[in-house]
Design a protein that fits this description.
With 652 residues, the protein is mainly beta.
């Protein structure tokens, strides 16, 4: 907020300020004035933020990069959605990233960004995110902030409980939110109980390259698997998955899947799974899935998976246990010590907190209610560390500050509730505007949270910002958690729906940012490393234009002899080697996208001219004083014309 001067100091402002002051008087520990809050999020021009935060784009399918505490948006990472602004998913080098067994899928719904961890702490190497709709996991490289890999998850639908990582990123997990006939086949929906099966998938992550590979899939009852959290410290080796719809309803789930008093958290011992598979207890089943990776040549390619190793709890005792959990659980979150697992029941009136050590004791003592498909259901009381009483309504997700406090989002009562992880007593609560889903503390799902800020990720904003017609923004709220009481410092809008977010100190990655791609190591087969290599060639109806871009011209910039109906491939190499000098490329009437080419990079796009004429192309990114001069023409003749194919490849 500006410091008021006489010119700006109007009565309404004064009244508002007085009200803020009054409110502050009523709650002295909540003290801060707006200017105090402003000073704590103010990052002066030229200064840098303390944290990088990565927000899921929800139905945008992407990930956005913000700075904290300022809330400034730096970049949208392109992941599951085609992006005409850069050509991601349109260019020849990137299209393969969006291949799936369903064909080319140019969109997804991304929910949970997850940073890679070493020894249970974010290490700044990679960021994973799930594709919820067409089940996939993407891995982004945090030095280039680009998507490096996308793997499809077979036998799955709605990859929601994903892509949470184990303590050393041994695995990133996936679990099907929607159970489906497995293998997929044509059956009556009413045969749900006989034919629909759940799958918990463990995807191995190579510790040096980050490359993912599906290690095994655990076949589980046909519930809806919702979220997960990996054990750490003493509980390392386990992953906890929530489920709802233990009723196995296939219609009107809002009623039919809310019948049971308790659903389950599935506790899965992946080290046990590895042992059983080593003993030959897994079976290889056919499965077709896409695995898309970017090669050393910076080109994405698809390999096809043909099988997965499947294991069942019945054949591998000790693999999985069910912990009864009240009322349609959503999140399950392991605390930094690895001992506590807080579960949020969407319709629950308490937050049940499970004890890992009590769970082991209950397994030892065989404190089992019943067994479902080979999975022992442990007695609720035997695994419970405590219940947080009267936390509010609709607990969803919990994060930790590393100082003995947990923070749980309450969707229905729209607030953040802080509670003590020893006494389970509520210590503080603060409203969120308006309906909070996830919340996030930098490192708040790790062994060492940087417990300074909390971000509330809100789904509904109503009157919080300037209105923008029927569609309003979603929102994040920055809350200071360093004091006894939480304090809201800032609201900022987000790109897409921010389901979850993760953050880490900027110092972990800011000095490792890639500045340019090395032109000398550009091995794209269509790279043009210097203007002398530029040119045009024809093979039947296909024309290849090898083109360079440098401040402030394309080479070639006059092309003739193209015919209507040709497939014209523009292979544009940005031969700059300076940071922050991308060039754009677009042709009149091009019906896919532009290209935005980073220094040292080659990007290719195809254009099929539909009518004769002379069409301009130009650079779309204001790259220099003579950026407007960075333009050219391509002449298109009728099919069968005798105009020879030419391009000017020397300066005249
Ligand atoms: Cu929005 Cu994690 Cu998909 Cu909860 S989920 S809110
Ligand atoms: Cu290149 Cu503008």
């Amino acid at each position: 907020m500006r410091t008021p001067t006489f010119r700006h100091w109007r009565p309404a402002t004064f009244v508002a300020a007085a009200l803020v002051a009054l409110a502050a008087c009523g709650r002295p520990t909540r003290s801060s004035s707006a200017s105090d809050a402003a000073s704590r999020v103010y990052v002066a021009p030229g200064e840098k933020d303390e944290f990088y935060a990565f927000f899921s784009g929800g139905f945008s399918g992407q990930v956005s990069v913000y700075g904290l505490p300022s809330g400034r948006h730096f970049k949208t990472m392109k992941v599951f959605s085609q992006d005409p602004e850069t050509g991601y998913g349109y260019s020849e080098q990137t299209r393969a990233m969006l291949n799936t067994s369903y064909g080319f899928v140019p969109w997804d719904d991304s929910h949970h960004p997850e940073l890679s961890q070493t020894a249970g702490v974010p290490d700044g190497r990679w960021l994973f995110i799930n594709g919820n709709n067409t089940p996939r996991i993407a891995r982004m490289d945090l030095t280039s902030m680009e998507t490096a890999e996308i793997i499809e998850i077979p036998h799955s639908a709605g990859n929601h409980a994903s892509p949470f990582v184990t303590e050393n990123t041994e695995y990133t997990v996936a679990a099907t939110r929607f159970s489906v006939p497995t293998p997929q086949r044509d059956v009556p929906i009413s045969s749900y109980r006989e034919n629909f099966i759940g799958a918990l998938t463990f995807v191995k992550v190579d510790s040096s390259s980050g490359r993912m590979a599906i290690a095994f899939q655990i076949r589980v009852p046909g519930y809806d698997y919702d979220l997960s959290s990996a054990g750490k410290g003493p509980s390392h080796g386990w992953v906890f998955f929530t489920s709802y719809n233990s009723e196995e309803a296939n219609t009107l789930l809002e009623v039919n899947a809310s019948q049971h008093d308790k659903d389950f958290v599935a506790a899965v011992n992946w080290k046990r799974a590895e042992a059983c598979i080593a003993q030959g207890k897994g079976t290889k089943e056919p499965a077709r899935y896409a695995h898309n990776t970017v090669g050393a040549d910076h080109i994405a390619r698809t390999e096809w998976g043909t099988s997965v190793t499947v294991i069942t709890p019945a054949t591998c005792p000790g693999l999985a246990y069910f912990l009864p959990t009240p009322k349609s659980p959503h999140g399950a979150n392991v605390d930094p010590t690895g001992e506590l697992i807080a579960a949020g029941g969407k319709l629950a009136t308490v937050i049940p907190v499970f004890s890992f050590s009590k769970m082991l004791a209950a397994i030892e003592a065989n404190a089992v209610d019943t067994v479902i498909h080979g999975i022992p259901v442990l007695k609720y009381e035997s695994v419970l560390a405590g219940e947080v009483p009267e936390p509010g309504l609709g607990p969803l997700h919990t994060e930790y500050d590393g100082q003995g406090h947990a923070y749980t989002s309450m969707f229905v009562s729209s607030e953040v509730v802080k509670w003590d992880t020893k006494t389970f007593q509520v210590l503080d609560r603060i409203p969120a505007y308006y309906a909070i889903g996830h919340l996030m503390i930098p490192g708040g799902d790790s062994r060492k949270p940087w417990g300074k800020y909390l971000i509330a990720l809100n789904k509904i904003t109503k009157d919080r910002y300037l209105p923008t017609g029927p569609e309003l923004t979603q929102s994040a709220q920055l809350i200071d958690i360093t004091g006894e009481r939480m304090q809201i410092l800032l609201d900022f809008p987000t790109v897409g729906e921010p389901h979850y977010a993760q953050a880490l100190p900027a110092s972990l990655i800011q000095d490792r940012q890639l500045k340019v791609y090395d032109l000398a190591h550009n091995t794209d087969p269509w790279a043009t490393r210097g203007e002398g290599e530029a040119g045009v060639t024809r093979r039947g109806n296909v024309v290849h234009v090898k083109m360079t871009a440098i401040r402030s011209h394309f080479m070639p910039d006059n092309i003739e002899g193209v015919q209507v109906g040709d497939s014209v491939y523009f292979h544009v190499t940005n031969v700059e080697q300076d940071w922050d000098v991308p060039h754009g490329f677009a042709v009149t009437g091009m019906n896919n996208s532009e290209l935005l080419v980073m220094p040292g990079e080659t990007r290719s796009i195809v254009w099929v001219p539909t009518k004769p004429g002379v069409f301009p192309f130009y650079c779309t990114d204001f790259c220099s004083a003579l950026h407007q001069e960075m333009q050219g023409y391509i002449r298109v003749s009728a099919r069968g014309s005798s105009v020879p194919l030419t391009a000017n490849t020397t300066r005249r």
